[in-house]
Amino acid sequence: MLDWKSREIFSRLSIPVDIPIIVRVDGWRFRKLAEELELERPYDERLLRSLINASEELMERNLPVALAYIFSDEISLLFAPPLPWNGRVEKIVSIVSSFISARTSLALGYAASFDGRIVLIRDEDELVSYLSWRQDEAWRNALNSYALLSLEKEGLSREKAAEELHGKKSEYLHELIFKKLGVNIAKVPAWQRRGVLVRKTVRIRNTEYGPVERKEVVVDWELPLFSSPEGLEYIKRVLETAPVFRRDGLLQG
After folding, report:
1. Which of 31, 75, 87, 145 could form a disulfide with 14 if both were Cys (CB 3.0 to 4.6 A apart)?
2. Is the pLDDT assigned to residue 252 strictly greater than 50?
């Protein structure tokens, strides 16, 4: 008999367990999901809450998830070392993606699927850079979603609207959205423009034996720009509760 175990060549691919990582999961064919569930456009809070709840449940399962940044149909989960499952890439990606898929499907009553990937993060500066990059994408997503809707309300198909908007600058999109929808895109809810962050915090509970510290999962709907001084301070506060990097910049292990 062939040695089939030896052919599981990618199962041996692993990351050193003392390196922080981000696991990013993205929805697969979510346009069809949105249409069949008749989700409100350009944003439906039901979808966002299903992703938030899935992230909260994952963080509560004793996995070293320090935070989850969410917008549209994607979640970026920061894992602190030591990594679970001996850093095995296939194991980490498959379990995280399948868990998010399962919990989101149960919440929406529809089969939702997510793909996954791993991003290596060396220090706090790289984390800020990564989160700023994804937050920039959240802003572009907001602009494009509202602009698409404005043209579709004029009678264009989704495909024709996308063609019309291709290569257009943000100033044009701002004006289009305001003209067609009467919406100032800079004033729509912060979670649509900047995303949502799920994190851990420490609560002090008074008991008959004295004050006790408890870690709880909280959701921040009003995020600062991560690239701003306020955003940098915010991320530092988050990492104080869920440490991922040493203060000297070296990785924890």
Report:
1. 87
2. no
DSSP state of 183: -
Average pLDDT over residues 1-15: 89
- Nearest 5°: the CA angle 104, 183, 71 is 25
Residue 188 lies in a domain: no
Residue 250 is predicted with a pLDDT of 42
pLDDT in tens, 34-80: 999 999 999 999 999 999 999 999 999 989 999 999 999 999 999 99
Q: 234 in a domain, yes or no?
A: yes
The answer to whether 216 and 200 have CB atoms below 8 angstroms apart is yes
41 in a structural domain:
yes
Neighbours of 54 (CB within 10 A): 26
Number of domains the chain is built from: 1
Per-residue DSSP letters for 133-159? HHHHHHHHHHHHHHHHHHHHTTT--HH
Phi, psi dihedral angles at 227 (to 5 degrees): -80, -5
In a domain, 78, yes or no: yes
Domain of residue 53 covers 14-135+196-241
Check pLDDT > 90 for residue 208: no
Quote the pLDDT of residue 181: 94
CB 205 within 8 A of CB 212: yes
Whose CA is closest to 238, among 219, 253, 210, 212?
A: 219
Q: What is the pLDDT of residue 251?
A: 41
Strand partners, 196: 70
Read off the pTM.
0.92
